[in-house]
Write a structure and sequence with these properties.
There is one protein chain. The chain is an alpha+beta fold. The protein has helices at residues 47-50, 63-66, 70-85, and strands spanning 3-7, 10-14. Strands 1-2 form a two-stranded antiparallel ribbon.
Length: 96
């Protein structure tokens, strides 16, 4: 039994042989959140913005999770480290 799926305007057929073939629809990447024109600049003096890119334990989230481009990931790394040294951000979140 074959199933037909519409993928990007083309019809794709599934014969059921592959377990993961039913996952035909993927969410498109929205792009880097820091590259948009309405995004605030990455600055070490803005701990509220930087906390969005830090995990519950206080570690930086990887770019594959936050969807940040390499250029802005480097800027985030620098800003987070600078902010930690100036005591605007903690090195470790104990009770968050």
């Amino acid at each position: 039994m074959t199933k037909e799926y519409i993928l990007d305007g083309a019809i794709a057929q599934d014969d059921g042989s592959d377990r993961n073939s039913t996952k035909m629809f993927f969410r498109k990447s929205k792009g880097c959140p820091a590259c948009s024109t309405s995004a605030p600049p990455i600055d070490y003096k803005d701990p509220n913005l930087l906390e969005k890119f830090i995990s519950e334990g206080g570690r930086m989230l990887p770019s594959r999770i936050t969807n940040v481009c390499a250029k802005h990931q480097r800027a985030l790394k620098k800003a987070i480290k600078h902010s930690r040294i100036l005591a605007l951000l903690p090195f470790v979140f104990l009770n968050r």
